[in-house]
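Sorry, I am new here, but would you mind making up a protein's amino acid sequence and the tokens describing how it folds?
***
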Amino acid sequence: MRILAFILLCLVLFSGCKKDSPKPPEKVSLVAPAKNSECTPVQSDGETSSIVRFNWNAADNTEVYVLQVTNLTTGTIQYKNTSATIETLSLAKGTPFSWVVVSENSETTTSVSSDSWLFYNPGSEVSHVPFPAELTFPAQGSTAFKDVNNEISLKWTGQDLDDDIKSYDVYFSNENPPVTLLQNMNAGVNELKVQVVSDEVYYWKVVTTDEEGNISTSNITEFKTR
């Protein structure tokens, strides 16, 4: 009986010493630069660059924020690790960018990314390049189910600070990158049905053109059919 009581006591003490599982960091809410806007730089940084301030709300269970800013013209990504909620970066003038903030802490390998926002760092231009189209369906890496007509709807959204998008060129094929121009769509159309076969991987992208002839190209999205 004494041995049994000793074992039970050890179990109680051990369970009382167990630590709670670490809580994963929470998702950041972005503040500025505002979504789909032209930012206001802090100051010029020479002829070709300016200093842009980024601001976001604090997230619970977060030790480090990783600011990631992507030049949508070149694809170059700038990173900055910080414990603060305000940071600055020197960015090319007259260029569209996207930005996200990733929340991390040292107690867990789990990290979480904020939403991705687009903005334009102004220069001396009088006409803005459209933001690259956002491919909304099918999502990257997803499985899409064809309808009874063996079709799937491709969906996207477009944004332009000048509000003068003229057309979208939709490229679609089972080769990466897709080089087949499927159709040229008017600015008011953001969906296109395409013929597909089951158990095939497809790739697609959208090229946006505005009334001034400015062009932007979306990322390439890949999906599989069922």
In short: The mean pLDDT is 92.
